[in-house]
Design brief:
The complex is a heterodimer of chains A (775) and B (161). Chain A has 16 helices and 29 strands. Chain A is α+β, with helices and mostly antiparallel strands and 775 residues long. In chain A, helix 12 links the parallel strand 18 and strand 19. The chains are: A alpha+beta (775), B alpha+beta (161). The complex binds FE2/S2 (inorganic) cluster (FES) (2 copies).
Chain lengths: 775, 161
């Protein structure tokens, strides 16, 4: 579109610090006088705490304090206030903090931990939402009815149901009356972990002056700030949260995770900073886990393939606390249509307490879980109708003038899924499928995807800019850099908006609630879109300040002036001009009198008219959508059941590519993660709620040998909200892999899977079963 | 008195008291404050802690300090000379191989261990050493590209000498 800096691959401004090992992550921070904490985890996943003996631990070398939750009287949470920083009288999952040791060294803190003795009275354990929903289930939260929650939530006190969300569009379930053909099935996206390479950690310091200072590996410093201020009864302004570089997030470093626990511990030693960094095991057992979503889905269509109705029920095993999971259940529910229009929708989402770690955000946020069902069902429906699966989809895609489940109208600027689907189909299905041979079955599968952010009414992102006398610009924002590359994006968008080269723009490194402009949290693939809009607004304000000053200096009116990145000049006589640097501090006249304001500005941006759902569960709660299509070519080894993903193809309509190198990197990583989820990754629990594989050598994330060749293309139908037409893309690449792979397995073998991961053992077992059927 | 272990760390003579279970990573990070070497797992699986000992890449999290006696240990901090990056650092920075960057120091040291010894390593050899490292961000393609780019830069550097 003829942009100067948008659409080009600039190297990230933080790359040098990262390749030289100088970037500072949480564990690299050392503060004078710092103490170290270790945390005791329970032996049972659900139990009453009868007694905690700490005497022996207190006497250990180096120990400063042993902390329990006995005296804790507050709950916290942003959506439903059901969280406690440390178990008070019962434990609800296996990784819960039960007690902590504060000592001079991590080693001393660890040694003393073993000397704490706890007596428990075990309670029944529920791993799956359905068990926890049964009539006679013991309550995981007895006081659910007392918890503060957002007015939009609907907990069911006296049960383990933390929230019910219901959406009805058209005639809802009655719409099936119009259907000629119905398919139905239940699909499972099991527990997993974001498993970023950097584990969680935090440092909290209750200072002598009654302020609280925090460092955390989190993406939401302002939520932590406000939350701690509320819990400890201090002004939010007195809580200062720093965020250093973050070694990957993928969701589970959003919302509040470990900070309240470390604050609780540190509150017992005011005056001393207390540091805690998760072991890898704790990162699995005691931070946020992912998914745990079963989707029961029924789809009805006319004989010709026109979709008429969908009924979906989300059973979300949300873990011991629902605050971080409830919005995922809701997002999974209303996005379970996938990228299709259904005139009638009846959708219910249950957020259910279970005795597992709390489920939190994972890149994709409910979409890949529910759309695993949708995209499997579209293939199944095509089979039942005897129709081509691409034709069936093409007939029903959301697009201009179509209305989604939430009742939102789609416009052309929302993107063109038809083209994405056609291109990906041509790329993967446009050639001959290799014939089954001695060793392998070959298959191809497809999935179309859609994602919107799950926002909040106060979800804003802001920007602060100041210009210097040499015309260079410093920018501060509240967005957390987790590796997604937002620092590069800020530079490029600001360069375009200010018409100056990116090299003249320096972006912030760390976040600090004292200095950073406000941001709710960096989630929902929204930084480019919302943050970019904030940058444009701020740049406009900055240019206005420059013009106002220049108008005085040039003795004219603002609307006669133009800006070109270097000068403010008179449109009718460009020779009448002032260099922007000379306007930066205000304009200093010959006699030293200075006129005008300093050239700095701040602005923020929300999504337009984001609203809470109405009583039908509908409303403008999605606001922005990115559509795309993905497909896979794979091989199944007959002997071992091993699945080899040979090639993966994706196309998304992103509105406008800002940085080609980075956007490809984002999709490469997302697809690889999702292939991991589809083929290997599952956090396994035994019946007692113990986690069986909380280590990276047991929970296999993909290595270079598992990463397929990828074709990645982008379509650019400019957006109306995002900067220079750009839309969100950070999470979308994880959505299609699981259904595409399962569809490809069916293509190769005729076997239908309804749950992931398809490990070699499961595949082999299914192949043997197939042989038996044949014999 | 516990035994003192002598070794060279990034060109300087160092010594540290041996203690049971003391691993090289603890000495690097906690005694000498070289925090570029990262700690990503509990069981020597992730590769983020990789350093070079006597020219070979090793995982410092399961490298008992006794084994470092009289050895030459090199960490990520020693690669760049002032603002001049080592070709591996330059290539990894430019190929898109850095997202969050937590895996990066380990990967750079791994490639250093390979390519400084074997400038003509095959792509398969490169993939093999990289398979000891986990990266959750990049999908690996940009890391492989960076490694190949680095190899070219290093070959050009050798030819120029
Ligand atoms: S820290 Fe993971 S391999 Fe050493
Ligand atoms: S760049 Fe984040 S783990 Fe590799």
């Amino acid at each position: 579109m003829g942009y100067k800096y948008i659409g080009k691959s600039y190297i990230r401004p933080d790359a040098i610090g990262k390749v030289t090992g100088k970037a500072i992550f949480l564990d690299d921070i050392r503060i004078p006088g710092m103490l170290h904490a270790t945390i005791l985890r329970p032996e049972y996943a659900h139990a009453k705490i009868l007694k905690i003996e700490t005497g022996e631990a207190e006497a250990c070398p180096g120990v400063v304090k042993v902390v329990t939750g006995a005296s804790c009287h507050y709950h916290y949470g942003d959506n439903i206030r059901d969280l406690v920083p440390m178990a008070v009288d019962k434990v609800r999952y296996i990784g819960e903090p039960v007690a902590a040791v504060i000592a001079d060294t991590p080693k001393h803190a660890k040694a003393a931990l073993e000397k704490i003795h706890v007596t428990y009275q075990p309670l029944p354990v529920y791993i799956d939402a359905r068990q926890a929903m049964s009539q006679d289930a013991v309550l995981i939260h007895e006081n659910l009815g007392d918890y503060w929650h957002l007015p939009t939530l609907d907990p069911v006190p006296g049960t383990n149901i933390a929230n019910r969300y219901h959406l009805k569009k058209g005639r809802g379930g009655e719409g099936f009356g119009e259907a000629d053909v119905i398919v139905e099935g239940e699909f499972d996206y099991p527990f997993g972990s974001c498993a970023a390479l950097e584990p969680h950690g935090a440092i909290v310091w209750f200072k002598e002056d009654k302020t609280i200072e925090v460092w955390s590996s989190s993406i939401c410093p302002f939520i932590i700030r406000d939350d701690l201020a509320l819990s400890y009864g201090v002004p939010a302004a007195d809580v200062r949260v720093h965020i250093p570089d973050i070694g990957g997030c993928f969701g589970y470093k959003s919302d509040i995770t470990v900070e309240q626990t470390i604050a609780w511990i540190a509150s017992f030693v005011p005056g001393s900073p207390v540091k805690w960094v998760a072991t890898r095991q704790e990162d699995f057992t005691s931070t946020l886990i992912a998914h745990g979503i079963r989707t029961h889905m029924k789809i009805g269509a006319k004989k010709d393939g026109r979709l008429v109705a969908i009924q979906s029920t989300i059973y979300h095993s949300t873990g011991a606390y629902a605050d971080t999971g409830v919005n995922i259940s809701i997002a999974a529910t209303h996005n379970s249509t996938g990228p299709y229009e259904f005139p009638h929708c009846e959708m219910t989402g249950y957020t259910v307490y279970t005795n597992t770690p709390a489920v939190g955000a994972y890149r994709g946020y409910g979409h890949q879980e529910a759309q695993l069902a949708t995209e499997r069902m579209m293939d199944m429906l095509a089979r039942k109708l005897g129709m081509d699966k691409f034709e069936l989809r093409a007939m029903n895609y959301l697009g201009e003038g179509k209305i989604n489940a939430l009742g939102e109208r789609m416009y052309k600027y929302n993107g063109d899924i038809q083209t994405c689907a056609r291109e990906v189909q041509a790329d993967v299905f446009g050639k001959e499928l290799p014939k089954e041979d001695e060793q392998f079955f070959y298959g191809r599968g497809f999935a179309a995807v859609m994602k919107s952010p799950k926002g909040a009414p106060f979800s804003t992102k802001s920007c602060f800019m100041k210009m210097n006398t040499d015309g260079s610009v410093n920018i501060n924002m509240g967005g957390a850099e987790v590796g997604q590359g937002l620092r590069t994006i800020i530079r490029q968008v600001a360069a375009e908006a200010l018409m100056i080269p990116p090299e003249k723009i320096r972006v912030y490194n760390e976040l600090d609630t004292q200095f950073s402009p406000y941001e709710w949290q960096t989630i929902g693939s929204m930084f480019t879109m919302q943050g970019g809009r904030a940058i444009i607004r701020t740049a406009d304000k900055l240019i206005k300040v420059l013009k106002e000053t220049a108008a005085q200096a040039l003795k004219t009116d603002v609307d006669y002036l133009e800006y070109d990145g270097q000068f403010i000049y008179l449109r009718s006589d460009p020779a009448m001009r002032i260099a922007v640097g000379d306007l930066a501090r205000g304009y200093i006249t010959g006699d030293g009198i200075t006129i005008g304001d300093y050239a700095q500005a701040a602005a923020d941006a929300r999504l337009p008219r984001y609203a809470n759902p109405d009583k039908n569960g509908q409303g403008s709660t999605g606001v922005t959508y990115t559509f795309g299509a993905q497909a896979v070519e794979l091989r199944i080894e007959k002997k071992s059941g091993k699945i080899f993903v040979d090639r993966f193809s994706s196309m998304f309509d992103v509105g406008q590519v800002v940085n080609p190198l980075q956007i490809r990197g984002s999709v490469l990583g997302g697809v690889t993660m999702a292939i991991g989820a589809a083929l290997h990754e599952e956090l396994l629990f035994d019946d007692e709620g113990h986690i069986l594989n909380p280590q990276l050598f047991k929970y296999h994330i993909p290595t270079i040998k598992d990463a397929p060749e990828q074709k990645i293309e982008f379509l650019e139908t400019p957006d109306m909200i995002g900067p220079f037409g750009a839309r969100g893309i950070g999470e979308h690449s994880v959505i299609g892999a699981a259904p595409a792979i399962l569809n490809a397995i069916h293509d190769a073998t005729g076997i239908d899977f309804y749950a992931i991961p398809i490990t070699p053992e499961k595949m082999k077992q299914a192949l043997e079963g197939m042989k038996e059927v044949a014999a | 008195m516990s035994e003192m272990i002598q070794f060279t760390l990034n060109g300087a003579e160092r010594s540290v008291a041996a203690e049971p279970d003391l691993m090289l990573i603890d000495v690097i990070r906690d005694v000498f404050n070289l925090t570029g070497t990262k700690h990503g797992c509990d069981n020597a699986t992730c590769g983020t802690c990789t350093v070079v000992v006597n020219g070979k890449a090793v995982k410092s999290c399961n490298f008992p300090i006794e084994k470092a006696a009289n050895a030459e240990v090199m960490t990520i901090e020693y690669l760049a000379k002032g603002t001049v990056l080592h070709p591996i650092q330059k290539a990894i920075a430019e190929s898109g191989a850095v997202q969050c960057g937590f895996c990066t120091p380990g990967i750079v040291m791994e490639l250093y261990g390979l390519l400084e010894n074997k400038a003509d390593a095959s792509e398969a050899e490169i993939t093999n050493v990289l398979s000891k490292h986990l990266c959750r961000c990049t999908g690996y393609e940009p890391i492989r590209n960076g490694a190949l780019m680095a190899q070219k830069l290093m070959q050009a550097r050798a030819a120029a000498k």
